[in-house]
Amino acid sequence: MIKIITDSSSLFSQEQALEKGFNSLPLHVVADQNSYRDYEEIDSKNFTELTKDAVKLSTSQPSVGEKMELYNEILKNPDDQILDITITDKMSGTHQSALMAKESCDDPSRVTVFDSTTLCGTHQHMVLKALEMRDAGCTLDQIVEALTKATKHVASGVCVLDLNHVVRGGRLPKSAAVAGNLLKVMPLAVIGDEGTLKVHGVARTWKKVFESFDRFLESKGMNENWTLYITHANNPQVAQKAKDWYQAKYPNMNIVVQVLDAMFMVHGGEGCMAFQAIEM
Question: Which of 29, 260, 277, 278 lies 20 to 30 angstroms, CA to CA, from 225?
Answer without folding.
Answer: 260
